[in-house]
Amino acid sequence: MRTILITLAIALATAVIPTAQEGHPLTGTWYGEYEAGKQKRDLTIIMKWDGKQTTGTMNPGPNAAPVTSAALDITAGKPAPEGRDSTEGIPPTFKVRIESGGMTFEGTIQNPVAGNRRITGTWMRGAERGTFQLRRL
Amino acid sequence: MTNRSMNRFCVYGSALVAIVMVLATNADLAAQGRGGRGGGAPAPAAAPTPRWPDGKPILGSVPGQPVGGWGAGVTTLPRGLKLEEIPFQPWARAAYDIRQIDQFEPHTRCKASGVSRQFSTPYGTEFVEVPDLKRMYVMDNGGPNSYRIIYLDGRSFPANIPLTYYGYSIGHWDGDTLVVETRGLNEKFWLDTRGTPHTAQLKFTERFTRSDMNTLKYQATIDDPGAYTKPWTTTEFTLRWRPGDELFEYICQQFNQGPEMMLGSQEEIDNTRFFVP
């Protein structure tokens, strides 16, 4: 039963993929896992940027929890020196903090403006903590 | 002049004429290459703005005259503006900055790219106006063989527009300027070759003014509360008429292994290269 529910949740999550590829870095469906002790648990977060705030849902299905907070912390990059190839510039970095279901996720977005972006970092809930990783579907 | 010297004169003269002809032919071919493809003859002196019987300007080819298209005219929407003047939200400015480094635009992966990006393709853009149907088709050659429809029948935007690459465009005339508003754009493409960002909340307004036969003025207003703190308007771009340009079969090959060969300037094509992007 649990497998069916998880499968359904993923199917529901993937059904909203077409809404974003290149837009706001957090918008879209993120799927991955987090480590709890020696276990790895599935993690799905769906987020949407409305222009002022990011809202969303963690683990859609019977155990769904709303995203209560999702924020970006952007550090500006540095363009390539005049006359040099643009790829020699230093890109901005995007750090993210997401709160949902009593858990806090803090991580860094890799390839933040590409379709295959990922978030890796650590999660916390009280004294518990561990690593997590998500990739944009 | 002796027979021998006459023969020499004839031989050298013929060779000179042949060389001049070859150079002239090569120059013509090179000019066609710079024009984008065959048929890119130099534009004639500007004639007045062509008009339909009802007096509205014709934005595309003129009935009874050879078809043509518009050359690339929109480079990057912030052109002529300081980036600080553009009301980017912080994430949008950061996204724009990243795209100056990672220039792998969706268009290079055969993604249809709507509104202003339709006027950046080096192979040109064609307007096909159908007055009886009160609509216009905008076809950017070099894209994924699709087109945008601009409705001119006075309709309103429907509720819940599905998000697409070309969106839902409605136009009306403001004097001699066609004003087109587009909504329902997805987030899977860039608005220009430099990666000016947008979200699905975008309302994109374009102003097209054909000031004479060979000149189309283009200006856009970006109203996207998802990416900008307030609406902003570009400077005016100029597209040039290319008589003789016709749409041709263009196969956009996904999984292109040579994206670095895509054009940088969007202005010139060297058709003499072994690979033509």
Domain unit count of chain A: 1
| Class by SSE composition of chain A | mainly beta
Percent of residues of chain B in helical segments? Answer: 10-25%
Number of helices of chain B: 2
Greatest interface: A-B, 28 and 29 residues
Distance between the termini of chain B: 55 Å
Number of structural domains of chain B: 1
Which stretches of chain A of 5+ consecutive residues score pLDDT under 50?
Answer: 10-20
CATH class descriptor of chain A: Mainly Beta
CATH architecture descriptor text of chain A: Beta Barrel
- Roughly how many Å is the radius of gyration of chain A? 16 Å
CA-atom Rg of chain B in angstroms: 22 Å
Q: How many β strands of chain B by DSSP?
A: 10
User: How far is the first residue's CA from the last residue's CA of chain A?
Assistant: 24 Å
Mean pLDDT of chain A: 86
Q: What is the N-to-C succession of helices and strands of chain A?
A: HEEEEEEEE
Major β-sheet of chain A, in short? 8 strands, antiparallel, barrel
Strand order of the largest sheet of chain A: 1-2-3-4-5-6-7-8
What would you call the quaternary organization?
Answer: heterodimer
- Derived from helix and strand composition plus strand pairing, the structural class of chain B reads alpha+beta
Low-confidence stretches of chain B: 1-38, 264-271, 273-277
Structure description:
The complex is a heterodimer of chains A (137) and B (277). Chain A contains 1 helix and 8 strands; from the N terminus they run αββββββββ. By secondary structure, chain A is mostly beta strands. Chain A has one domain (2-136): Lipocalin, CATH 2.40.128. The longest helix of chain A is centred in the first third of the chain and has 13 residues, at 2-14. Chain B has 277 residues and is α+β, with helices and mostly antiparallel strands. In chain B, strands 1, 2, 3, 4, 5, 6, 7, 8, 9 and 10 form a 10-stranded mixed sheet that branches. In chain B, strand 8 and strand 9 (232-233) form a beta hairpin. The longest helix of chain B has 33 residues, at 3-35. Chain B is globular and about 50 Å long. Chain A binds chain B through residues 18-25, 27, 49-52, 72, 74, 76-77, 79-80, 86-87, 89, 91-92, 94, 112-114, and chain B through 89-91, 94-95, 97-104, 106, 163, 186-190, 195, 197-201, 225-227.
